[in-house]
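Hey, sorry to bother you again with one of my protein questions. A protein chain has come my way and I'm curious about its shape. I'm sending you its amino acid sequence along with the backbone structure tokens. I owe you a coffee for this, so here goes:
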Amino acid sequence: MDQNIKIELGKDGVLTACIDMQGRSMNVFSMDMMDSLERLVVHMEQSPEVRAVVLTSGKSAFIAGADLAMVRMFTERARTDSHSALVELCGRLGRIFRRLEKNPKPWVAAVNGLALGGGLEVCLACHARVVSDGPGVMLGLPEIKLGLLPGAAVGPFRHTLRRRRAGPRRPRRPSAHRRDARPAGRAHRKMPRLHG
């Protein structure tokens, strides 16, 4: 179906969607990855045989944030594009996350590595998060150390906090080690490491 996200439908109707960007050592959010995620959301919406989605990674990092070339392109276009064009461009990932979040079929993020920036944001948009207790697992929004708000997940972040009755507030720490993810509300379960 897609070069970045490989899918497999189980007999139980659970679709495993494995993010594995070709030619990259880590998965990152790029325009191409946004296209892939949007195609996955549309595929799930249009496929009655799909009952749920488990989103995971084929790499040691789940999604390690934004592609720097894409960030550079956004910065350059901010100098020339109209306000409406920038809203369309910069708000796209947030709209995809919101569509995922509002989907009546359950989405579960199975996190097996770094989930930083946009990687954590897509996890927050999912209905549940399961985190490996293997080494190297970290969830966080490192951009807040620079005074920046999460780019796309203001909605999912706010809704996740509201579900925990924590109110709309900034996390105390920008990143959480795997053992701190569940108490911080960033994960529902911690699971044993799945692969070497």
